[in-house]
Amino acid sequence: MYDSDMNLMHPNRTKMAEIVLEVVPFSQDAIFTALDLGVGTGLFSKAILTKFPQCRVIAVDGAVSMIEMARMRLGALGDRVDFRVGDFRHLEELLSEGEQGELVYSAYALHHLTSQEKLALVQESLKFLKPGGWFLNADLVVAADPRIEERVQQIRVCGIVERAGGRDNRFADTTSTRAFLDDLEARDNDKPLTLPDDLQLLKDAGIQNASVFWAEYREVVIGGSKV
C-alpha cells in the first residue's frame, strides 16, 4: 500500500533516484559508506547498492515497519546494509563514535522537520561525511507565491486522479484527493520550505556549493559536497 500510494502521489521517485546516481561522482567499483536518512521501503538504497556493488549503506528509519519493508525490497542486497531504528533528529545517537562515510542521502523525509531540526541534522550529517563527501536530498518544496503554489497543487491533484484511474475511492475525483492530501499532510506535520530557503539552509549548515540538480514543480534534488 505504501509504495503504491507513493507511486500515485510521487511518480518522479524513480527519476529522482536516477538523478542522485548521476550526481554521485564515484566510480561503479568504488568502496564507500553511505548513510540513508529515512530509508522508507528502500527504493533509493536499492538504487545505490545496485549501481555500486562495493558500497555499504547505513539505513536509518524511525519505523520498524519501514525497515522490514526495506529488507524485503533489498533481498540479498541487504547483506550490505546496517539497519538502525531511531529518530534521525538524534543522529549522533545512531552513529558510532568516529563513524564516517562518503555519502549522505535522503528522500521524501526531511520536509517533516522544522527548519532548526533540518539545519541541525544537516550539520550532524556533515560530521559523518569525510572531506569531499556528498550530501543529496530528494524532497518537496513549496512555492513562495501563493498563486503559483495553488496552480502547482492543482496540477498535482489532477495528476493523482488521472493515475488512479478510478480504481481507488480516495482518489476518485479532485475533491476526495484534495481531502486525502490535506489530512495526510496534517498527520505527517509537513513543513516544506521554499527552494531558496532550502538551499540557504544547506549553505548555513556548511554546504557552500549547495545546488539544484533537478526540479519539477514541487519535487527537487538538491545538495552539494563537503569541502
Please give a structural write-up.
With 227 residues, the chain is α/β, with parallel strands linked by helices. The chain folds into two domains: 2-142 and 192-225, Rossmann fold, CATH 3.40.50.150; 146-188. 45% of the residues lie in helices and 21% in strands. The protein contains nine helices and seven strands. The protein has helices at residues 2-9, 13-23, 43-51, 64-74, 91-94, 115-128, 146-164, 174-188, 195-205, and strands at 33-37, 56-61, 81-85, 101-107, 129-140, 211-216, 219-225. A seven-stranded mixed β-sheet has the order 3-2-1-4-5-7-6, sandwiched between helices. The longest helix has 19 residues, at 146-164. The radius of gyration is 17 Å and the shape is globular. The protein starts with a helix and ends with a strand.
Essential attributes:
227 residues; seven-stranded mixed beta sheet; 2 domains; 7 strands; Rossmann fold; alpha/beta
What's the gist of this structure?
The protein is an alpha/beta fold and 227 residues long.
Number of helices: 9
List the domain count as a whole number.
2
Roughly what fraction of the amino acids lie in strands?
15-25%
CATH superfamily of the largest domain: Vaccinia Virus protein VP39
As a whole number of angstroms, the C-alpha radius of gyration is 17 Å
Tally the beta strands.
Answer: 7
Strand count, sense and closure of the main sheet? 7 strands, mixed
CATH class of the largest domain: Alpha Beta
> Order of SSEs, N→C?
HHEHEHEHEHEHHHEE
What's the average pLDDT? 97
The helix-and-strand class reads: alpha/beta
How far apart the termini lie comes to 41 Å
* Overall helicity: 40-55%
What topology, given as strand order, has the largest sheet? Answer: 3-2-1-4-5-7-6
CATH architecture of the largest domain: 3-Layer(aba) Sandwich
Task: Give the overall form.
Answer: globular
Poorly predicted sequence stretches spanning 5 or more consecutive residues: none
CATH fold field value of the largest domain: Rossmann fold
